[in-house]
């Protein structure tokens, strides 16, 4: 993914821990999948899903269902928006910035499935293309174990 101009921001440990807890533990679907943040920066985020024996039983033929891929990419787009909003409002304490995410919602989502979701693990990436006062636009990628692009997405989120 190409990167937009980086925001010169270093997130506080409290903000990172709070955002990780919201994303990995408080969103039941993310928790079920074992979606784990691997990169959290103002301009881009990444996470990983490891296939587990208990997940394989839920998905036909040891592959991730398109709905799981779509939901994962949607979650990543939302995480990218959260990071961008967090960077934009560094004048606020971390807890106040984390409360801003309660109003975040998907208003448009498009996923292009390029290859079947087969693999031992997957990397999901997202970046914000534009953060407006009411709407944010993102681009997301779903990558296989060798880094091959398996699905790509674009989404818009309400941020007011």
From TrEMBL:
Enzyme class, UniProt record, top EC level: hydrolase
Enzyme Commission code(s) on record: 3.1.2.20
One GO MF term: fatty acyl-CoA hydrolase activity
Swiss-Prot/TrEMBL catalytic activity: a long-chain fatty acyl-CoA + H2O = a long-chain fatty acid + CoA + H(+); a medium-chain fatty acyl-CoA + H2O = a medium-chain fatty acid + CoA + H(+); a fatty acyl-CoA + H2O = a fatty acid + CoA + H(+)
UniProt keyword terms in alphabetical order: Hydrolase
InterPro entries the record matches: HotDog_dom_sf, PAAI_dom, Thioestr_dom
Residue ranges of every copy of the Thioesterase domain listed in the record: 62-147
Protein family (similarity comment): Belongs to the YigI thioesterase family.
Stated name of the protein: Medium/long-chain acyl-CoA thioesterase YigI
Species of the source: Acidovorax ebreus (strain TPSY)
Lineage: Bacteria, Pseudomonadati, Pseudomonadota, Betaproteobacteria, Burkholderiales
């Amino acid at each position: 993914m190409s990167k937009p101009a980086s925001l010169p921001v270093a997130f506080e440990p409290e903000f990172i821990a709070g955002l990780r807890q919201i994303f990995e533990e408080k969103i039941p679907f993310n928790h079920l999948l074992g979606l784990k943040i691997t990169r959290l920066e103002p301009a881009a985020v990444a996470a990983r899903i490891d296939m587990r024996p208990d997940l394989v039983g839920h998905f036909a033929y040891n592959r991730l269902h398109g709905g799981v891929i779509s939901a994962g990419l949607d979650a990543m787009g939302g995480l990218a928006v959260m990071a961008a909003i967090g960077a934009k409002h560094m004048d606020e304490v971390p807890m106040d910035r984390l409360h801003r995410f309660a109003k975040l919602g998907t208003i448009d989502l498009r996923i292009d499935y390029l290859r079947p979701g087969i693999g031992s693990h997957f990397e999901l990436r997202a970046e914000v293309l534009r953060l407006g006062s009411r709407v944010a636009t993102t681009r997301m990628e779903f990558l296989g174990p060798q880094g091959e692009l398996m699905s790509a997405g674009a989404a818009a989120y309400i941020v007011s």
